[in-house]
Amino acid sequence: MAKQYDVLFRLLLLGDSGVGKTCMLRRFTEGEFDPSHISTIGVDFKMKTIEIDGTKVRVQIWDTAGQERYQTITKQYYRRAQGIVFVYDITSEPSFQHIVKWASDVDEFAPDDVQTILVGNKADEETRRQVTKAQGYRLAENYGMEFFETSASTSSNICESFVRVTELVLQAHSRDVDNLLGSLDSYLDKVVLEKEKESQDKDAQRTCAC
Ligand SMILES: Nc1nc2c(ncn2[C@@H]2O[C@H](COP(=O)(O)OP(=O)(O)OP(=O)(O)O)[C@@H](O)[C@H]2O)c(=O)[nH]1
């Protein structure tokens, strides 16, 4: 079957347990929000195809467990990522403070050219806010990252942030997109291929360009 995309990238969601990584991913890939919190075990992933300047980009987005006990497993996925979304919860000061730790892990384990953005999720919870927008911008600026406040609940800025990190990855790899595609394809393991097949039909109907 002919490929339905031009290039494939791997993105990773990182942040403390409960900040809303799974909900953000579900909102982006399925357009749904489930208020229950079932902690991710290890890692999971979903896929979506988006079109950027005429290029069909398939993004494989890995959702990692925020819980400390899974970190040996999740760190193994850092080196495979081209883009990383750091997520904190605007109603949780500790989750914001911990971004420094997540960023330091990425420094240690991810490729040097990995593209990153910072996201403050649960922006709909204004009355429970503990982290100001200005603090978010400042931290992002310190790391040279772009910053978004999102809400998986209302969908605000969800698509925009995933598309932006994908654009950054595409820009960073614009010269070697063909090589990258080849090496990534050969890297896909059995589980990924099976899941890829499963979602082909659904995906065809939800190409997103925000
Ligand atoms: N109000 C509000 N609640 C949210 C939002 N996103 C997620 N939540 C809630 O936050 C809780 C945790 O969300 P998850 O997506 O499971 O969190 P996670 O970061 O994937 O957690 P781990 O898998 O343990 O790392 C759930 O009860 C969600 O309903 C949001 O944008 N707004």
Automatic annotation (TrEMBL):
It is an enzyme of class 3 (hydrolase). GO terms for cellular component: plasma membrane. It comes from the Eukaryota. It is found in: Cell membrane. One of its GO terms (molecular function) is GTP binding. It is a lipid-anchor. One of its GO terms (biological process) is protein transport. Keywords: Cell membrane, GTP-binding, Hydrolase, Lipoprotein, Magnesium, Membrane, Metal-binding, Methylation, Nucleotide-binding, Prenylation, Protein transport, Transport. Its main location: membrane. Pfam families: Ras. Belongs to the small GTPase superfamily. Rab family. PANTHER family: LD44762P. The small GTPases Rab are key regulators of intracellular membrane trafficking, from the formation of transport vesicles to their fusion with membranes. Rabs cycle between an inactive GDP-bound form and an active GTP-bound form that is able to recruit to membranes different sets of downstream effectors directly responsible for vesicle formation, movement, tethering and fusion. RAB15 may act in concert with RAB3A in regulating aspects of synaptic vesicle membrane flow within the nerve terminal. The GTP bound form of RAB15 interacts with REP15. Interacts (GTP-bound form) with MICAL1, MICAL3, MICALCL, EHBP1 and EHBP1L1. NCBIfam families: small_GTP. This is Ras-related protein Rab-15. The lineage of its organism: Eukaryota, Metazoa, Chordata, Craniata, Vertebrata.
